[in-house]
């Protein structure tokens, strides 16, 4: 039974993702209509540069007045692919007030203001869907908030930024330094002209906030996420990782504490064993591990960015939201009932790989080991390498809190025999 | 806003999966209530052996009369984890008639009678969900029918049977023969006393039918799926695979033909390159690759069987179905609008690895090559190995239709110089 009055879609933004959404809406119109139960019609496209030629889009649909578009009153679904905080935020809340549901790919906005946006959606009895905000085409939001709704998620561990994974993979496979690998990523279009959001971990942190919020049914904001970029990862770190049978990835890690009452969310480079499935995620691909009580370990893998994959996620949401509209229902909204404490980084418990430059004389190892013991950090292995009065000491710890490790490192720096702390890297995925 | 009248759930079957569903419904009652918006109550459990002690289940809920339970009229959701065709089929259709929605884990029934069951659900305006029927805890049905609803799926390629993957992995890693590996799988509980459904590919074929139907929006029945078990895979095949940089997996493959107008579904052992992500899926794990127009290659990985993982999938569906009931809506039903032709195996196009025992004399290779050429099957590589008047010839072809390959092999068998066709194996994942 096909309804003939079309559902009207307003597209905000017509860049790499938006133009692909518009294209697929046109080329796959029949399929979308069959899957939704009614045709969908592109009712308007808000852009910044109206003069740009946009193949396949009726020029009469183009407008620079996004506000007027969302206020038209006859729009069923607003697709927001502008990105950034404003004007996206105001446009989305206005859309709800004027009767539309919203599909967004805006991770920064969701991570910062997810709760307020969900509240606005709920107040107006509308849907807010955002599969495309995390890990591009990989179905992740929906599996977490629907498929695993009957399970208890304990950990989400993932590679959620393709740019940094491309750079780290390049460093690992060719021995290139960070700058060289970044230059190649830029030349190939994997890194933006200003790569800060990627390499400093802001992009991954926004995704971690969204994932943690859904996984733990708890509000987790961007500010709650500990963040460390990957600009200080060196070729020497990769050599150390190799010695341990590991590689280095920039990971987003959302964990429930062992007592179950608190959670943490963090983004930082970490060593993971080569045998871990995340170790073999190459190039700009993304992959996310989800560990839960009943289902054990699940992994979701695919292209984490790009116009087409992101458009696929947007359109999957569009179909769901349109179906909801036809049946007069709404999908799952914010689920924050658990309201767990989001603990600071100091409470995170993990393993550490620490490289020290030390004086090459007897008793140094004993001194260093004493400092670890005094801070309650148990040592797993130590490797010494010395030449010409200089030596390096590589310590791998058992699981310890970040606070204990930080205290240990501060005390180590005060030892006369420790010339410097060459690197500290967390070890995950075991 | 929590509704206080509970939703009533009838559980049909209380074996490995059912008892785990009941357990989680009890231990996670508060979480489920918060996620659904109303409490869920176990209203009855139909079993075959009422005398068995079932820890944590109120004995007054136990009944042997499943029919009376689904006919009670106050049941909101029937969870069917009995398996098999009857009485499961009649119980499910009765449940719809008496006003319940249904969550099922029954792959055999869905593959055989999915269309009729969907029709019964639709006629009564009820939900039929079955995430647990394919690949255990791995969210796959929902991503395919919802997340990728705006995309065009071209291929689904997966390891969907844990028992056979355990056996093949064991043969690959230890050099064991088939029987030895099967014995170990049985001893460890990975294979059932009668392993026919697994090793002959019936289980995987049922899953392939379900996946193909959803992926291509076309009815695909179990009978439409070409099926070849893995009992004839030998240690010699693994040695040949290794020579090619491959391993052997039992794959379920659902493909859209290049012209887009027809699809195929098949289950058989195949060589795949060691570099393919499916090659590293170990033990009893499952993994499914999905290739689509916009999203590219996605992979879903996790435990494919077992009580807890399957229960996780059942409960995810239960939450969705309960939410739908509260909002008075239903989720996506059968989507078969595309109604593509399901082509026979002869139309499948792939590559082949063929081992021939031949006479060790001049001219044999020329004869063999002529037969391939006459049937339009192009040869990629040939390797000859001879000793004591006997020789083996290993031919790897370019892509050719199954019909052309079958014709080639028939003609080869008629050559005087070909003593036997030692093995034919498809090569996939390139």
Automatic annotation (TrEMBL), chains A, B:
Protein name: Homoserine dehydrogenase
Gene3D superfamilies referenced in this protein's UniProt entry, alphabetically: 3.30.70.260, Dihydrodipicolinate Reductase, domain 2, NAD(P)-binding Rossmann-like Domain
Record family assignment: Belongs to the homoserine dehydrogenase family.
Keyword Zinc-finger: no
Keyword Oxidoreductase appears in the UniProt entry: yes
Sequence positions that bind L-homoserine: 192
Catalytic activity: L-homoserine + NADP(+) = L-aspartate 4-semialdehyde + NADPH + H(+); L-homoserine + NAD(+) = L-aspartate 4-semialdehyde + NADH + H(+)
PROSITE patterns: ACT (PS51671), HOMOSER_DHGENASE (PS01042)
Residues passing through the membrane, by range: none
InterPro entries the record matches: ACT-like_dom_sf, ACT_dom, Asp/hSer_DH_NAD-bd, HDH, HDH_cat, HDH_CS, NAD(P)-bd_dom_sf
EC class name: oxidoreductase
Binding site for NADP(+): 12-19
MF-aspect GO terms: homoserine dehydrogenase activity; metal ion binding; NADP binding
Residue numbers binding NADPH: 107
Top-rank lineage group of the source organism: Bacteria
One BP annotation, GO: threonine biosynthetic process
Alphabetized PANTHER family for the sequence: HOMOSERINE DEHYDROGENASE
């Amino acid at each position: 039974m096909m309804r003939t009055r079309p559902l009207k879609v307003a597209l905000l933004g017509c860049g790499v993702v938006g133009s692909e959404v518009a294209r697929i809406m046109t080329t796959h119109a029949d399929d979308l209509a069959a899957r939704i139960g009614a045709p969908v019609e592109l009712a308007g496209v808000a852009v910044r540069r109206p003069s740009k030629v946009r193949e396949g889009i009726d020029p009469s649909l183009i407008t620079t007045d996004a506000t007027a578009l969302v206020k038209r009153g006859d729009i069923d679904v607003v697709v927001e692919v502008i990105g950034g905080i404003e004007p996206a935020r105001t446009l989305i809340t206005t859309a709800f007030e004027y009767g539309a549901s919203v599909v967004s790919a805006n991770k920064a906005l969701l991570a910062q203001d997810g709760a307020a946006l969900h509240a606005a959606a709920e107040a107006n009895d509308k849907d807010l869907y955002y599969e495309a905000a995390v890990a591009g085409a990989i179905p992740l939001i929906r599996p977490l908030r629907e498929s695993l709704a009957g399970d208890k998620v304990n950990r989400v561990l993932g590679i959620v930024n393709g740019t940094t994974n491309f750079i780290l993979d390049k460093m690992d496979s060719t021995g290139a330094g960070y700058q060289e690998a970044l230059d190649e990523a830029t030349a190939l279009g994997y890194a933006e002209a200003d790569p800060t959001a990627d390499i400093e971990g802001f992009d991954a942190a926004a995704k971690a906030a969204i994932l943690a919020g859904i996984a733990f049914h708890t509000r987790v904001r961007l500010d709650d996420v500990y963040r460390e970029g990957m600009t200080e990862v060196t070729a020497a770190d990769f050599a150390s990782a190799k010695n341990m049978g590991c590689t280095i990835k920039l990971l987003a890690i959302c964990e429930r504490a062992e007592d179950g009452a608190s959670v943490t969310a963090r983004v930082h480079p970490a060593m993971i064993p080569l045998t871990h499935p995340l170790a073999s995620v190459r190039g700009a691909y993304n992959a996310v591990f989800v560990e839960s009580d009943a289902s054990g370990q699940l992994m979701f893998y695919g292209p984490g960015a790009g116009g087409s994959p992101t458009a696929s996620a947007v359109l999957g949401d569009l179909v769901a939201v349109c179906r909801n509209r036809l049946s007069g229902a709404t999908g799952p909204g914010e689920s924050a009932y658990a309201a767990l404490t989001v603990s600071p980084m100091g409470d995170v418990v993990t393993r550490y790989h620490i490289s020290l430059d030390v004086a090459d004389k007897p008793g140094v190892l004993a001194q260093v080991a004493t400092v670890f013991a005094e801070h309650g950090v148990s040592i797993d292995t130590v490797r010494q390498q010395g030449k010409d009065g200089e030596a390096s000491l590589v310590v791998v710890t058992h699981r310890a809190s970040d606070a204990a490790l930080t205290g240990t490192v501060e005390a180590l720096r005060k030892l006369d025999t420790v010339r410097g702390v060459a690197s500290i890297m967390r070890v995950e995925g075991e």
